[in-house]
Design brief:
The protein is α/β, with parallel strands linked by helices and 567 residues long. It is built from 24 helices and 16 strands. It has four domains: 96 residues, Hemocyanin, N-terminal domain (Up-down Bundle); 154 residues, Rossmann fold (3-Layer(aba) Sandwich); 195 residues, Rossmann fold (3-Layer(aba) Sandwich), CATH 3.40.50.720; 88 residues, no CATH class. 43% of the residues lie in helices and 11% in strands. Helix 4 packs across helix 5. It binds nicotinamide-adenine-dinucleotide (NAD), (2S)-2-hydroxybutanedioic acid (LMR) and manganese (II) ion (MN). The site of (2S)-2-hydroxybutanedioic acid has 9 residues, from helix 14.
């Protein structure tokens, strides 16, 4: 692999403390002389391999996952090539340390583990200087990607005030191949309603209750317009916004800029891929499924919409007919006509009261129809959990489903691991190995009745969003269309190990996530070109080669000192 060359304007301490350019002991003799480093480094020049070996040994001396997470965070602050190179060499082992589930713990303790800020913090009381702050932070950078969060619904652990955008951004580089100097993490701090954070004197965010309504919308809009004005070709990623804002913001901006909501669209896409793999095993069609979605928040709705749209486009049934394939169950049971305060965006999927009169008559006085009753009546073929309700899929529920379905498809997707609706090992045992399973966090394999391992697919949006994003970015797509997302999801589904061996995992292993996401990116860019969403004038046939050229790799460049160079 040829070494990239850079003209760099930083010297001495400035280059050693710059994570993008720092090489530590890997600076060559010529570079040490040219950049004033000879006296600032010990004698021996290390290769990147040697540095990775040392860093890996140091990492192993940390005894807890959260300790390892903090160690890696410090490494990222010091040297990007070394950080990404180490992660790339130990991908399967280290993704759960820098991402789900350990990242949930890191975010919950953000203020106590805090060492160094990263990216951009836009805080409500400083809104008047937002443009100045934005320009100062992005000065001289050609940014392709903004990863933003207001941290209201972090994974399943709720309102954390600040956090997540940087971790999601790391995955874009590690798995998607996006140059980290072109990706920018943004925290929109609009307060928090988390009492323990508000009462914590060490809380680093703005200790104030969340801003809502017009003030919130104006604040977010100011940020979005700055992105559009100064980086019109960038992708704007939304992560872990609260359910009352996520869908609204996506609808508001998706026709005017390439915006992407990961919890809605990324989760919808990866779940569609997993389900396509599962119905490949059961040899049925999407529109043959009866699907229960447990937890009708951002992820639950995103999945419902994605699966519904896929039934319409792939199986050619009407939207109304496809809507009838879903039963959404939330905190107050089945979502149906007489339930008060049903969110506007769920209205299409509301079930008729008349279908449930008999069951309601037998039920308790508050009239809620619980998951078990829905399972018994509907006889679902698919049950998906996005509820944050740990253990919500009880043995009785799983057994009731398995009693009426040969190969129950069960995806308990809530993160982190401790919030999973059912431990996949239990779901496997209770269904005597018949269930087709996928979870949101990594789980060890389950044992089949014949003693073989059943690998639990990790249906996490990180298996697809870096590729969806990279595909949209390299094709300079003005918007991210539903058809681009479906193209990426179908490509991922086509790479499922279960397609060649039905006893194998429903999704590829996370250790292969970079090559899988590359395929997703190619499919997305090809679709963008075909449908006219792309801003490049490539032929579809050229996409793969062009995409390869744009991949960022964690290798050291060769530096030449130049006063007018990069800094
Ligand atoms: N695997 C993935 O890629 C992936 C992606 C996104 C979200 N998730 C997970 O899904 C969960 C939900 O995320 P979200 O962003 O949709 O959050 P959200 O807050 O928007 O939605 C959660 C929904 O679950 C409902 N709920 C809460 N308790 C319930 C209960 N006991 N029974 C039924 N419903 C209940 C809430 O009312 C809400 O509608 C989280 O744990 C998150 O980590 C996983
Ligand atoms: O962050 C993850 O692991 C997936 C998802 O975006 C979530 O909110 O749980
Ligand atoms: Mn998320």
């Amino acid at each position: 692999m040829s070494q990239p060359q850079f003209r760099v304007a930083l010297r001495g301490e400035a280059i050693l403390t710059h994570p993008r350019f720092n090489k530590g002991t890997a600076f060559t003799t010529a570079e040490r002389q040219a950049f004033g480093l000879t006296g600032k480094l010990p004698y021996r020049i290390n290769s990147l391999d040697e540095q990775c070996q040392r860093a890996y040994d140091q990492l192993q001396s940390q005894t807890t996952d959260i300790g390892k997470n903090s160690f890696l965070q410090s490494m990222k602050d010091q040297n990007w090539v070394l950080f990404y190179s180490l992660l790339t060499r130990h991908l399967r082992e280290l993704i759960p340390i820098i991402y789900t589930p350990t990242e949930a713990e890191a975010i919950a303790n953000y203020s106590h583990l805090f060492r160094r800020s990263e990216g951009l913090y836009l805080t409500f009381p400083n809104r008047d200087s937002m443009e100045e702050d934005f320009l100062e932070a992005t000065k001289g950078n050609s940014i392709d990607l903004f990863v933003s969060s207001d941290a209201e619904a972090i994974l399943g652990i709720g309102d954390q005030g600040v956090g997540i955008s940087a971790a999601k951004s790391v995955i874009y580089t590690l798995i998607g191949g996006i140059d980290p100097s072109k990706a920018f993490a943004v925290t929109l701090d609009v307060g928090t309603n988390n009492e323990s954070l508000l009462n914590d004197p060490l809380y680093v965010g703005w200790p104030h209750e969340r801003i809502r309504g017009k003030e919130y919308d104006d604040f977010v809009d100011k940020f979005v317009q700055l992105v559009r004005k100064h980086f019109p070709h960038s992708l704007l990623h939304f992560e872990d916004y609260g359910v009352t804002n996520a869908q609204r913001l996506l609808q508001r901006y998706r026709d005017t800029h390439a915006v992407f909501n990961d919890d809605i669209q990324g989760t919808g896409a990866v779940t569609l891929s997993t389900l396509m793999a599962a119905i490949g095993v059961t040899k049925s069609k999407l529109c043959d499924q009866r699907i229960i979605i447990y937890g009708a928040g951002s992820a639950g709705l995103g999945i419902t919409k994605q699966l519904r749209d896929a039934m319409v486009s792939l199986d050619k049934i009407s939207v109304e007919e496809a809507n009838q394939k879903f039963w959404l169950v939330d905190k107050h049971g089945l979502i149906r006509e007489s339930l008060p305060d049903v969110r506007e965006d769920l209205k299409e999927y509301v079930r008729k009261d008349s279908e449930w009169e008999e069951i309601q008559a037998q039920g308790d006085s508050n009239g809620e129809i619980k998951l078990l009753e829905v399972v018994k009546k509907v006889k679902p073929t698919v049950m998906i959990g996005t509820s944050t309700h740990a253990g919500g899929f009880t043995r009785e529920i799983i057994e009731a489903m398995a009693a009426k379905c040969d190969r129950p498809i069960i995806f308990p997707l809530s993160n982190p691991s401790k919030l999973v609706e059912v431990d996949p090992k239990d779901a496997n045992d209770w269904t005597k190995g018949k269930a087709l399973l996928a979870t949101g966090s990594p789980f060890p394999p389950a044992k089949m009745p014949d003693g073989k391992d059943y690998i639990i697919a990790e249906c996490n949006n990180a298996l697809i969003y870096p590729g969806l994003g990279f595909g949209a970015m390299i094709s300079h797509s003005r918007i991210m269309t539903d058809t681009m997302i479906i193209a990426g999801a179908r490509r991922l589904a086509s790479l499922s190990p279960a397609l060649t061996n039905p006893d194998d995992a429903l999704l590829p292993d996370f250790g292969d996530a970079p090559s899988i996401n590359f395929e997703v990116a190619v499919a997305v860019a090809e679709q963008a070109i075909e449908e006219g969403s792309a801003g490049v004038d490539w032929m579809k046939e050229e996409v793969r080669e062009k995409a390869k050229e744009k991949l960022w790799r964690p290798i050291y460049g060769e530096y030449v000192f130049d006063e007018d160079g990069e800094k």
